[in-house]
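Collaborator request, handled under Task 6.
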Amino acid sequence: MILIVDDRPENILPLKKILELHQFKTDSAGSGEEALKKILNNSYSVIIMDVQMPGMDGFEVAEAISGFSKAKDTPIIFLSAVNKEKKFITKGYSSGGIDYLTKPVDPDILLLKVKTFYKLFQQQQELKAIQHSLQNEIEIRKNAQEELAFRMHEMQFILESLPQIAFTVNVEGDIEFVNEHWFQYSSSAHVFPEMHPDDFFTERWSEHFAAGQEFTREARLKALESDEYKYFLLKIIPITQNGAIVRWVGTFTDIHEQKMANELLEHKVELRTRELLDKNTELETTNHELQQFAWVVSHDLKEPLRKIQTFSHLIKEKYLTGNEEATAYLNRSINSSARMSRLITDLLEYSRLSVKANFQQTNLNSLIDEILVDFDEVIEEKNAVVRVHPLPVTDTIPSQIRQVFQNLIGNALKFSKPGTPPLITISSTLIGSKGMDEPAVADGLFCRIVIADNGIGFDEKFLDRIFVIFQRLNNISTYEGTGIGLAIAKKIIDKHNGLISAQSVENEGSQFILVLPLVQENDLSES
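Structure tokens returned to the collaborator:
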């Protein structure tokens, strides 16, 4: 905006028209005092000032303006119709004017001068803005440099206090700082410690440096004093500021003792693994030999037992008729031979569990129906009731799982209370995971099967004994058995990746609980 100062309106009006015609915004003041008030409140690009005015003349106004920090650089063009002498012109320039024109003024000349001074003023303002911006930028950079120097000093102090070898690398890839530990392995702050020939990483580090990625690897450094190589873990990470990498910080961490211990441990593990493989091969051979031995021994032991039983029966029928005492003694011998035969058979069955076998999908309801047919005579003799609820299809080794149910149902029939018909209930529930007390879920991956009876039961303090081979809780003269049946069941369930347990109250009955996976993860089952 251009301010026109003149005490005569007829002088102001033509100047305003000329300037506004050339797209200049204008303002006017009728006295020096009014001009000063407007200059205090507004910014002007050029001031056209009449020299002769009542009150404050143009020179006095110009001198007052030069004291305003806001307007002291505003160009002032003096106009005068009377004061044309050199001394007045000189006074005009000395009081702060940038030009002095005498009236009558040529409009074109005035317009050219206004345009020139307007443009100069605008450029001056732009330069001031640029200068101000540069000063701010310089101040910001100065503060940033001071902050950076402080942070750098702080980081160096931290690196110096570390137990590791620590260093920094600038964006050009040159080492700029190292801590005291560096000089145990390098004689120069600008040269990396000497490394084992097999551990050079220059090429890989260059790739990570170019990509701005963290770099980590093991390296063996040569100590200056001992010339020995020690293992270190090198880690170099980029430090970023405003999204740009400003430097890299690296550390060498001593891992020598750990590395030596690991290598020793790996060597021991390797030796132990080799020993275990040898032992496993030896054990497999021994197991095979034992299986062969069990078959041979069972045949050789059962053959003389059969003869003892056969000839004992012949003697009893042919020579001891009417001799009750001799018959009783011979019956004991026959019963002992029968128990010995059952024991040999059970031991043979127990040894067979070490043989590999395939899992198959098995309908447990069909399997139990077949088992109950085998127990028809006993069930009928004891007036037993067997209730079988729907059971799931599971992956099993059918011959072995049949033996488990056969033993458990047989025990429920055998250990019934005298004078009380046995009641046996077989039920199942799907559960989510392998556990005795897991809640039922509709889509469980395991099944929990309960075989409950109303027999003589047992004291639960003996629970840990009933699944151990040859452990019996009942008198052999009252209840027949070898004490192997539940041990066989336990081994079979273990082989099926399941669980077996029991709950019981004496003279009230027992519950045997099986937990089996519906689907076996392995194709083969091994002991």
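The cover message to the collaborator said: "The chain has three domains: 2-131, 160-258, 356-517. The chain has twelve helices and 19 strands. Please let us know whether this matches your experimental observations."
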